[in-house]
Design a protein that fits this description.
Length: 127
Amino acid sequence: MKSKSIVTIITALLMSLMFSNKMAAQSFNNYMRIAKITVDSSQLEPYMIALKEQMKAALKLEEKGVLAYSAVYDKNNLTHITILETYANVDAYKAHIQTSHFKKYKATVEHMVKSLELIDVIPIGIK
């Protein structure tokens, strides 16, 4: 049942991104990645603060490279977080993980994250 809800969330995220004005104008050569994260339940609030800060900085400071950044949690298990990231290309992603705001986020949440799975994805849509 949990995997069904994750699939539903991911599908909704992909559909909303693909049909937004920003994504419609972009090439399908973008680099997209899903991060599936499990957070220590006692650290959920500070994790959310760190994640929101990092996302806000990435979208503001890397506006040409970071095209979209969406995070959701499973309503049946708030510690299960899924992030969908869309970058202009692989180089934009590589630049992103070298930024000070991303490095700060990783250092801050290092002991809060119980598991992390990164999945490269390709959008399904109409050009």
